[in-house]
# Entry
Amino acid sequence: MINKLDVLGQAEITLSRFLKKVDPLSSDFKITNRGVWASECFALCVMCDLLGIETYIESGVYKGQSLLSLRAYYDEDMVIHGIDFFYYNIPHEAIVRGITISHKYTVGDSNIILPEQISKNSQFSFGVFIDGPKGWDALKLAEKIIGYDNVKFIGIHDSYLPFDTKDEHYKFRKHLENNFNTWSTDDVDFVRKYNYLDNTRWLEYLEENQLGGILPYNKIKFLHDGSKYDSRLLKSYGPTITFIWEK
Ligand SMILES: C[S@@+](CC[C@H](N)C(=O)[O-])C[C@H]1O[C@@H](n2cnc3c(N)ncnc32)[C@H](O)[C@@H]1O
# Structure
C-alpha cells in the first residue's frame, strides 16, 4: 500500500516532465470550463507513474481537461480511455495544444462500461479517475471495481472538505477516509509545494467568481493578503481528488 511519502517522493520525479509536456503555466494552457485543475492533472500523472499504470481510464471526460493533460504527459506511452454519456468535440482543443489524439472515447453509461472494461482486460493495470458520476454515485461505481487486482488506484473528484459537518461533501469525504485508505490532493504538503501549478486557473477563477463559491483554499492561504483570507467556507480547496484503496 502506498503512502503519502511515496506520493510526495514520486511528485518530485514527475514534476519536470509534467512541466515540459503539459506546461500548465504557459499562456497556451487553457483551462476548460468544469475541467480539473493543473495540480490535479499533475497528481493523476504522479499516481500513474508511481503505480506503473498501463491503462488510464476516465469516467466523465467532458471537454477533456484531465484526459488531454494525461495524453500530453504520456505521448504514446499509455493507453488512455475516456467514457462519457456524451461525445464532446475535444480534438479541437488537442490540436491547438499539439497533442496527438490517440485515446479511445466510449459514449455511454460508465456504470456499465467501466466495470466491463476492467473485467475484460485483466492483463493490464488500470488507473481510474471518476469525474462523473459524482459523490455517492461515484463511490457506488468505485465499489464495483475496487476489488479487482488490476485496479491500482481510483481517484474521485470533488471530494473537498467543507467546514460545515452537516454538508454532504463533508460526510462524503469523511466516509471515504473512514472506509478506505486515502490520499487527497488537498494534502497540505502537496498544496504548499505545487499550488503554483494552478496559477492560470486561479486567475480565471478569481475573475469568474470574485472570491465567491468554492474557494481554492491553497491560493487564498498563500496570497499573503489578509484582506482576501477567508477560511470560513472550506477547510480544503475545491474541487480536490481523493484517491482510494481498499483497507
Ligand atoms: C465535470 S465533467 C468532467 C470534466 C473533465 N474530467 C475535465 O477535466 O474536463 C463531468 C462529466 O461526467 C459525465 N458523466 C456523468 N455521469 C456519467 C456516467 N454515469 N457515465 C458517463 N459519463 C457520465 C457528464 O456527461 C460530464 O461530461
The pocket of S-adenosylmethionine is lined by residues 32, 34-36, 59-66, 83-86, 109-111, 131-133 (CB under 6 Å).
